[in-house]
Specification:
Residues 10-62 form the DUF397 domain. The chain is of the alpha+beta class. Helix content is 19%, strand content 23%.
């Protein structure tokens, strides 16, 4: 398995994140075709990797109300 080096990645905090609460960051340009997502309260912790298409479908579902963010 190949590891993706995210040490110099520019992370973007979700506009839906709350202060002191649920905080999600994503890295839109980390690697072609992949979108890493992590908990901003644990920046040294693990990141989930989504394909760009899967991440786009997830965001579309959230924006359309098909999924609800807590």
């Amino acid at each position: 398995m190949t590891r993706l080096d995210l040490s110099n990645t520019h992370w973007v905090k979700s506009s839906h994140s709350t202060d002191g609460g649920d905080c999600v960051e994503w890295a839109p340009a980390a690697h072609p075709g992949l979108v890493p997502v992590r908990d901003s309260k644990d920046p040294q912790g693990p990141a989930l990797l989504f394909t760009a298409n899967s991440f786009a479908a997830f965001v579309t579902a959230l924006n359309s109300g098909l999924l609800k963010a807590n």
